[in-house]
Each structure stands twice: as C-alpha cells, then as structure tokens.
Amino acid sequence: MQTGIDKYLLEATKIGVAIDIAIKSLEKYPNKEWDKETLTHIIKTYSEWKNDALNPETKYRNLTSLKYVKDNVLTLFQESSGDAVEYFWTQIKKENLDFIRENKMEKILKRGKIKNEIELNFIIDVMIPYQQEGMVTQEEMININEMIKKFSEKKTKGKGKNMFLI
After folding, report:
1. Second label for 57, Cα 20 to 30 Å away, from 37, 64, 161, 165?
2. CA gap 76, 3 in Å, rounded
C-alpha cells in the first residue's frame, strides 16, 4: 500500500521528468517570438518548478500543491502549438508518463462555468492570446468575461468589481 509520501514522490518524479522534457523542447524548438532573455527566463522558471516539486517546503509537500506545479508546467504545452509542443507530447508518450493533452478552454466554455481559482488563472493567462490568435470568437470572449464575473462575484460575495474583465 502506498503512503501519501510515496504517492507524492512518484508524482513529483514524473513532473521532474516532464520538466526536463519541457526544457529540452523549448531549447530544441525555441519560440521565434522570444528573444534569448525570454527563453532563458522561461527555462529558469521551469527549473524552479522542478525544484519546487522535488524539494518542497514541508507545508507544500502534498498532492494538492503538486497539482499547481503540474498545471504550471503543462499549461504552455496544453494550449500552444508548434514544433516544441509536438516534440514535448511525443517525448511524454515515449517516457510513458500519464499526462494527457487536453484543451482546457474548450472544456470550460462547454461547461459555461469556472470551477476554481486554477481555472480562473488559466483563463486570465490565455484569453487575450487566444483572442489575438483567433482561437476564441468574440461571442466566446463575451461568455468568458461573464464566467469570470460570476466566479469573482461568488468568491467575493458580490463585493467589489473584477479587474480581469476585458
């Protein structure tokens, strides 16, 4: 029987391997829009996430905290396209890691509701790039803003305005 610590170590190790793959993907196929400084910063961030997963403070050594790291690591590769993304997912499969490529925005739009702060942060991070790249329609942007408003009102019980509406 696995203990919580065993499960944590297993998941953290898988995330560490995924981060190594992410870094290799970004180095092998850098985004043409990034300068060297941006690429260096992103790789440094991935390295910090790896350290967070493998050497967490005691209070963060749990599967819930690890899920935040995992979501951070996978966001770029879940919601982008290009050679680095395809290479990343090919390598994930070769390593038999059980990470699944999914379109989170599509799921949220179909559901019509933001479930939690992770989804809220995700939407806020990608909504403008998605709109600029034509990945969401104007109607979907209106729906996204309405979902952000409803989620924020629920979290603040209607107090204050949401600064994220576009």
Report:
1. 37
2. 31
Please tell me the total number of residues recorded for the chain in this structure.
166
Measuring CA to CA, how many Å separate 4 from each of 12, 23, 89?
12, 28, 28
Q: Compute the distance between CA of residue 97 and CA of residue 18 in angstroms, rounded to an integer.
A: 8
Alpha carbon 30 to its chain's center: 18
Q: Output the CA–CA distances (angstroms, integers) from residue 132 to 31, 44, 89, 126, 138, in the order listed.
A: 17, 27, 24, 10, 11
Instruction: Using only the alpha carbons of the chain, give its radius of gyration.
Output: 17
Task: Pinpoint the alpha helices (H) of the chain.
Answer: 4-28, 36-54, 63-79, 83-94, 104-111, 117-132, 138-156
Q: Which two tokens stand for residue 161?
A: 């305005």
The pTM (predicted TM-score) of the whole model is: 0.68
Using 50, 70 and 90 to split pLDDT, how confident is the model at 24?
very high
pLDDT of residue 124: 87
Which residues are CB-neighbours of 156 under 8 A, at least 6 positions away?
A: none
pLDDT of residue 121: 85
